[in-house]
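Quick log. Single chain, no ligands specified.
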Amino acid sequence: MSRTAGRGPRRLIRWWRRRSLRARLTVIAATAIAVSVFVAFQVASELLAWQLRDTVEEQLRADARVLAANAERAGPAQVELPPYPGSGRLVRVILPGGSVRTPAGQPVLPPVSENAGRVARGTSADLLESNGGDEEGYAIYTLRAGDGAVQVARAVDDGPVNQFGFGMLLIGLLCVAGGALVGRTVARTGLAPIDRLTSAAVRVAHTRELDADIPDEGGGEIRRLIQSINDMLAALRDSRQAQRLLAEDAAHELKTPLTSLRLNVELLIRLDRRGALDSALPAESRTRLLNDLGAQVAELSTLVVELTDLARGDVSDESTEVLDFADVVVAAATRAESRMPDIEVALDATSVWVNGRPAALERAVLNLIDNAGKWSPADQPVQVRLRAEGESVVLEVDDGGPGIDAADIPRLFDRFYRADSARGLPGSGLGLSIVQRVVDAHAGRATVARSARGGALLRVVLPAAAPPTPIARPTTGEDTATS
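-> predicted structure:
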């Protein structure tokens, strides 16, 4: 039973949700006007009925006072009662014995009530009572007169109220119809910018053209919506441009190692086909060529990995956590020393806490150390320092190389950028760009300066985090008591 009863509201809700916004606004406007007209009708009807009752009561009191004055002068049994004119008020005189006198030809009034009898006997004050029936009702006012009482009555007529209600009903229907039309017109006018915005969005989706901004029109929420969509289109344009530049730069950077690798491989294949591999290439030359091939493959592998990291758009899919940055720096330094056995890393790291992604931060620190290792002479260690400064964590990587030209500093963190002095060194020009992306993702900043040794000083500043609260452990006494 309850399941069947609940289907109706759910169906109504589903029907309502399937309606368009324009239809909803039209229904809401018509409903609001209908409710307003109904409430106004109820209030106006009550006010009209109250006014009519008050007018009838005042008239009955006035007529009763006149009739009571005549009855006191002539006596209730002798007071003159003119014949009933056929309409208007009705009168009745209550005699001391309880009998009544009425004008000739007057309709019969309801019997004298017990309360009216008390007024006639002088035991109660004047009385206004309503006697309603299925066919006709009366408002009767009873007033003490001499040793009896007089009554003045009027038929209760609901005609004016009913006529007023019928008129209000017609007006209400007209108002509801007009409200629906007005609501639809207002909805069409108010939603016109939304319709144009939808058309523009559909056009962008079909044509894939992100260059045309949607015209800014309207105000308030409409303007903010249009501005938000234009900002989204601008972000999409920037993303597309970044992807295009990345593809172009990747193609350019991959071309050189691939060309060199292809030429060397083709040379080996031609010599092998001619059977002149041993005679044309001595053992020393073959070894050098194979080493070059291995270096080129390693360079391509590194470039592909860095391109993959850079093209993902996000630093990493791993979640952030509160971690000791010193552990990350030590791990990166260990990896760097294993990759570059000829380079010494002098590490000075204190325990500092940050909120970040461990793998991404380790990759950034490793890139910084790798970059410094390319420039540091064999007798000059790469100095890595980690410390806390106020509410920040500062990481400095200092090499003993020749330093960075002032003209190269503004573009040092750009993708694929390599200074003229670094053209002969291995690398893709993506390492520091990845560092910049990782630092930006952690709300930090990366800068470059000249170190005290004359080399490059790369500095990373990250927001510090509060260390995690240690887990309370039971004391020895508690352990003993528990055991």
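The chain is about 55% helix and 15% strand.
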